Amino acid sequence: PLELLRAKPIPKSLGVSRRKTCKPEVASSLIKKIFSHYVKMPVARDAYKIVEKCCERYFKQLSSDLEAYTNHAGRKTVEMADLEVLMRRQGLVTDKMPLHVLIERYLPLEYRKLLIPVAVSGNKVIPCK
């Protein structure tokens, strides 16, 4: 009976993994593709590293701003209105250039369908709120 009460040793293979935890980041290949698409000329490798750092800082600032707007509203979920307020503060969304126009202009059709409400047959609106 005493042998049953003793703790069994944990095998070494099931112990804590030694892998380093990595922080989430935008893929450098994606940044390179987007940047080279808009630059339309050869770019040095050092310049890509600087662009990656700038993108990382931009997205950190963007996410912290969205978090602040969401906390201020007393919610735990970021909504489209928070993003619209942020883009308005950045000067991307104005009275002459609403968010829906930017969505239609720059996003593919499958994302447009998810973000912009559309009336379909049967008196239904997609996406539902």
TrEMBL record:
Residues 30-117 form the CENP-T/Histone H4 histone fold domain. It comes from the Eukaryota. SUPFAM superfamilies: Histone-fold. InterPro entries: CENP-T, CENP-T/H4_C, Histone-fold. It is found in: Chromosome; Nucleus. Keywords: Chromosome, Nucleus. One of its GO terms (biological process) is chromosome segregation. GO terms for molecular function: DNA binding; protein heterodimerization activity. Pfam families: CENP-T_C. GO terms for cellular component: kinetochore; nucleus. Belongs to the CENP-T/CNN1 family. This is CENPT protein. It comes from Pandion haliaetus (Osprey). The lineage of its organism: Eukaryota, Metazoa, Chordata, Craniata, Vertebrata.
